[in-house]
Write a structure and sequence with these properties.
heterotrimer, A mainly alpha (336), B alpha+beta (373), C alpha/beta (346), B: alpha+beta, MetI-like fold, 4-stranded antiparallel β-sheet, C: 346 residues, alpha/beta, 23% strand, binds adenosine-5'-diphosphate, binds iron/sulfur cluster, binds magnesium ion
Amino acid sequence: MRAGKSRSLGNFILYRTSISVVTIFAASVISFIIIQLPPGDFVSSYVAQLSQTGAIGSTESIEQLRRDYGLDQPMVVRYLRWAAGAIRGDFGMSLQWNREVSGLIGEYMGLTLMLAVLGLLLAWGLALPIGLYNAMYRGSMGDYAFSAFGMIGIAVPNFLLALFALFIGFRYFNADLGAIHSPRYVDAPWSVGRFFDALWHMLVPALILALAIMSRLVRVLRANLLDEMSRPYVVTARAKGMRELTLVLKYPLRLALNPFVSTIGLTLPTLISGSIIVSMVLNIPTLGPLLLQALQGQDMFLASAILLILSTLAVVGTLLSDLLLSWIDPRIRLES
Amino acid sequence: MVPQTDNGNEMPPATLPVLSPGALFRRRFLRHRLAVVSAIVVALFYLVVAFADFLAYSDPTASNSQRALVPPQPIHFFDDGRFAPHVHGLERTRNPETYGLEYVADEAQTIPVVFFARGYEYRLLGLIPADRHLLGTEGAPAETSLFLLGADEQGRDLFSRIALAIRTSLLIGLAAVAVSIAAGIFFGTISGFYGGMVDLFIQRAIEILRSIPTIPLWMGLAAAIPPTWGITLVYFTVTLIIALVGWTQLARELRGRIMSLRGEDFVVAAELSGAGPGRIMFVHLLPQTTSHIIATTTLAIPAMIASETALGFLGLGLRPPAISLGVLLSTAQSLQNVALYSWMLIPAIPTAIVIIAFNFLGDGLRDAADPGG
Amino acid sequence: MRRIRVARAAEKHGVNADPIVQVRDLTVDFDTVEGRIRAVDGISFDVLPRRTLGVVGESGCGKSVTAQAIMRIEDERTCRLGGSIVLRRGEDTLDLLGLDRDSTQMRELRGGDIGFIFQEPMTSFSPVHTIGNQIIEAVRLHFNLGKPEAAQRAIEQLRDVGMPNPEHIMNQYAWELSGGLRQRAMIAMALVCGPRLLIADEPTTALDVTTQAQVLTLLAELQDRHDMALMLITHDLGVVAAAADDVAIMYLGCIVERGPAASIFRDSMHPYTQLLLESLPSLTRRRRGALKAIGGTVPRAANRPGGCPFHTRCPSAISGVCDRVLPGPTQVAEHHVVNCHLHDPQ
Ligand SMILES: Nc1ncnc2c1ncn2[C@@H]1O[C@H](COP(=O)(O)OP(=O)(O)O)[C@@H](O)[C@H]1O
Ligand code: SF4
Ligand SMILES: [Mg+2]
């Protein structure tokens, strides 16, 4: 019995992991192709740029540039080269910045992750108590208020919220929500103080980001809890003489957490999309604005690397949440 | 044994009025007051779509550097105690301290605001040539004198532009939904009907598509639209890009519904009577899911509108000279604009309202379609 | 059906002992969208120590709701209770309806003095907690024991209900067990704190026939061994005939007849009881066709008929009386009470 169980858990992990690998592969192909779609390539826009500034390159040097970047090769070859590099963490050179893409991304990654993780934690941390409250006191004023507010949170797109927040922050608090470092930390190297300073300034952007996801999680959690609270095993626990709150926390909440955890996987892509657009509105130096610039300047290595990394983040996050789910719910392992 | 009723243990309900499924659906929907109000709001928005040019009073493309960035203008309803709506003329000056441009009202100059005035020429509903507008001015062209919600940096009237932007954005929402629905119905139905490998393949494809964050994906795709393309082509492409991800949700839901209906008697009966799979799928099964399709569609439209707005806002979707809510909002991108010319944020308000209304409406429809779920 | 009763000393189940639970004029109302529904309409009965009270009635007549009222696990949002439920603890008596549902005292009684077994052992265990976890929890709610001691006690209790390999069962989930074992685990959990009263709500309905008999025998043995009172709720008069000392027959929220099992089965007085008995295959040797002996269907609780609740289906109904006046209780033999105008002296 034990052995059988752990084998099926092993199978499950294997299965989910292989799906994720396929997904990341597909994402890499899509990222690569998208970047190749625009007519012309980086070199031509680079040359256009140069000719504007008067520094016109000769035809030979243009051809040389093309060869250097492998642009004369067929698409498949270029993809394989790029993918082989990507696996080693080498994403080529950013032509706009004239720097290694990997180094550039590493620099922006910290704040990107900080925003996304903070957003996720806020969404979770707030959704749990609110969902619990709404379910235990369903039909109360608080429940109605949270639910209506949640609907709006779900409906209004992130970037509009960010825009409103930007306006309100500026108008009434004379604060720039996009400034995530206090003046004394702006040019300082990373330190514990700078980290917490950034975390503090990130709070409002992360809240904006968290609102929609939190509202969605509250809805899911409330519905699941209500479902679970009417189940016979809850009555059994009550019949044992358990205190109501202890009981709700141990049984329904525990079971309602399963769909909750599985929703987390689904929300990760949304979270990453959201963090991109929120940081673009508020002008926070994350991968979002970097991607926008790269796309606008046809900086293809940079853009495709960012696309790939963002997708990979989402896929790996989803994988982790699925594995977490299979760990907390013994039934899942048996089903697959 | 205690005798039981025929169905085992449940007592048959006493006389209840028998309602058709449609009537039940309507009754349940009408109970959601918020959803009903939202339905009215959405209907009003589509009235704006139909009569955008009539509601606009200034040519939305007529730029006028003399009227750049006019702030929203107060409208006066009474003149000497007599009801006579009017605005005052505008005087352009430079602030002696900040050297910034300012507009002051010329109290002496009164420009009457009248109903059904003549203005720029357009085609009503795209067909009938017309030049009457709901509002207009007398004595001076509206383009230089009436700015109810202010003007943009090219001196174009924001009110009129919002009317046209609503038309564009709401239509693009509809178009993208139509494409999504078609794809979702197609893939969802065959996936749910055939199951097996077909299902596995389609479901994996959907899973992959959904695990890629949409905004970066859209950004990449939209950035690939060549700058040389015309408005119509861009419009069409943006629609497709938005629909690319949207169909997956519907396909999933339909698949679930079809799968559960698949084993029901009427399907088996249809199969036995020799109906082909295509006929069973699209004649017998699909109509059973209409209420779901309606609810999902209603919830998908605001997502599409939001997507267009987001892309336009980033400068990656529709681009000027097209007029959409996203394009209008893209001018609000810089903090400077938000701070100094806050009326440029006004287009965010109808955007938020229409999206919220659509969501409440879709929610009500979904509850009515599926009271248990 | 064979009597499952285990032979006992006569004085052990005296009819005249002081009752553990005295239910008086219990009413249970539900607030629903259709308005207020009366699910239980002023019933009175006693549960006597060390005896088995069989509560019988068709589905929907209010058996479960009555049991839930005694446990105070009614749905607090929609359910309103009236009357009194008096529990005797030694010399003290306590009206359960006067207690707050979530009060310490009520929680001590629940699972401590009164154990409860549910119909559906599958869904009555949490699917993500092991059996052991849930039984240990029951122990520790009522006894100040550490985890290992509580686990030991749980294992002993599992062994006591005849569970094979109890140590192993402790680490299993309910959905890994067969129906019979699951119900045994349920019984173990209900008994682990040594209750004086065990309420079993349709304990065998979800089981197959062989397992049913085993579980009933087990309940009878356990009752004997632990000196408990048992309130056995069922829609199956056969089960009651096999196991009960006292019987209460319910119809549409009312107890229409109650008394010692022998008296009820020998001299049933109420037309409904008589029809039930006639339809009982093993007692009357009639075939299954007799199941439809009672014509018509049970009215819904929402539109209870006036007068005697059974008059819409009663073959002996006296028109002008039965549909107007609710029959009161009439004692027809020692401890044997019937609510029917046919036996009303007036
Ligand atoms: N939570 C509830 N809400 C409304 N009515 C209920 C509820 N629970 C039970 N009832 C009503 O009470 C009556 C008795 O139910 P119950 O005690 O479960 O019957 P049974 O005798 O089959 O156990 C039923 O008619 C049912 O309609
Ligand atoms: S009171 Fe009348 S209707 Fe009721 S059981 Fe007796 S005879 Fe039948
Ligand atoms: Mg019951």
